């Protein structure tokens, strides 16, 4: 039915009529289908562009409640999970447990992916702190959008491919996802009401 509706809206669907000798045919020139598609898409694009403009330039209610420490707690908990249960986030051949961590610490050998994960999480905490101290709300919006996209690609695409474990089978990535979702909810509060 959708296909028929689209063809009718573009003027490409014709009713089947019985052949009649006295029937007159009218030839209609074809219309550019891309123009019709663009006109149809405008009604969906316009609210999206208005939302983005309001997001970056809209007036915000000011509430003097500082929730940055909750963001820091969420990021710090993710850092602790990465530190303690890193074997849930890497392929089995690179896995290290907490007991192996201390052995590796004595021998000063760390896997590259372990170090990269810890540095990346530390940089996320650092960037978030800089944006908070500068009270740069537009930077926070862009940072969160990029962080949402990258986090979801990592947790739902790259993690299962690299570890050969499904997301639903890995407890600590699920816990990380819940904590990061809480982080994004608190962050949306900051975006909605601005920094104190």
UniProtKB/TrEMBL annotation:
Sorted alphabetically, which keywords does the UniProt record give?
Membrane, Transmembrane, Transmembrane helix
Instruction: Respond yes or no to whether keyword Transmembrane helix is given for this record.
Output: yes
- Parts of the chain that traverse the membrane: 67-86, 112-132, 141-159, 171-191
Q: Which InterPro entries match?
A: Piezo, Piezo_THU9_anchor
| GO CC entries | membrane
Q: Which residue range or ranges hold the Piezo THU9 and anchor domain?
A: 66-196
Q: What's an example of a GO molecular-function annotation for this chain?
A: mechanosensitive monoatomic ion channel activity
Q: What is this protein called?
A: Piezo-type mechanosensitive ion channel component 1
